[in-house]
Amino acid sequence: MSHIICVVNQKGGVGKTTTAVNLSAALAYSNCPTLLVDLDPQCNATSALGKTPLENHPLATGRPWNDSLVNSGIERLDLMPGARSLADIQALNAEDPVQTKRLRDVLAYGLSDYQYVLIDSPPSVGALTKTALTASDETLMPIQCEFFAMEGLTRMIELIRDVRNNEQRRLEFAGVVLTMVDYNLELTREVENDVRDFFGEIVFRTVIPRDVSLAEASSFGQNIFEYAPRSRAARAYRELCMEVMDRG
Ligand SMILES: Nc1ncnc2c1ncn2[C@@H]1O[C@H](COP(=O)(O)OP(=O)(O)OP(=O)(O)O)[C@@H](O)[C@H]1O
Ligand SMILES: [Mg+2]
What we know:
Layout: E1 3-7, H1 16-29, E2 34-38, H2 44-48, H3 58-61, E3 70-74, E4 77-80, H4 86-92, H5 97-110, E5 116-120, H6 127-134, E6 138-144, H7 153-166, E7 172-179, H8 187-199, H9 212-219, H10 224-227, H11 232-246
Parallel strand pairs: 1-5, 1-6, 2-4, 2-5, 6-7
Antiparallel strand pairs: 3-4
Helix pairs in contact: 1-11, 5-6
Bound molecules: adenosine-5'-triphosphate (ATP) and magnesium ion (MG).
């Protein structure tokens, strides 16, 4: 059975896409058949893998998903590309239960061959994020290690609870990963302690350091293991992958 993990945080630019892309790659390199679903109209995960967004998304057209899947160029890692038109779903179908359930059905019955499915979601608590959560078993929340790191998280936590209660979904609030960590900054330890106090043991031991090679890798359409395999960021994402796999 697949682990379906939604990468969420309503804040923009905290490392959701970077984490979704590099963790997916690490899982695939660790022999786990993995699918990355880009559910963000920005299509950053699609571009980061050097792929082109779709014109029409099967979530909107109802066409079979398998037709739109592409191999990422990495063995065992497939991609369901994003589409800019996903923004229309976001705007129009905010509370459409048919649409929110469709993704779940596709992942549960249509694409069950993958050991891991990671869903990259947009920075909002809107319809697409709800769709992503409804289809998932677990959430993985990257938190950028900065002042106000946890501001606004209450709404996200409410949405997760809401999906869990209304959709009868075993949606585990399963992992928090600190990103862009720089221990040279005075504030960093303080923010890290606050996050660990608040979330407890669901915070991964591994933290992702601030490392410019992550941004460079994406701009070349590569993951960090291709672009800078010896970098601190590559090591961190490898360790995060091991922690995710250890959690079962
Ligand atoms: N650990 C890191 N060190 C340095 N730069 C990083 C790190 N993680 C991500 N970045 C860079 O920060 C920017 C935002 O990261 P990313 O796109 O992953 O965030 P996001 O949460 O997906 O954003 P959005 O909410 O817009 O989807 C990107 O330019 C990315 O390359
Ligand atoms: Mg993103």
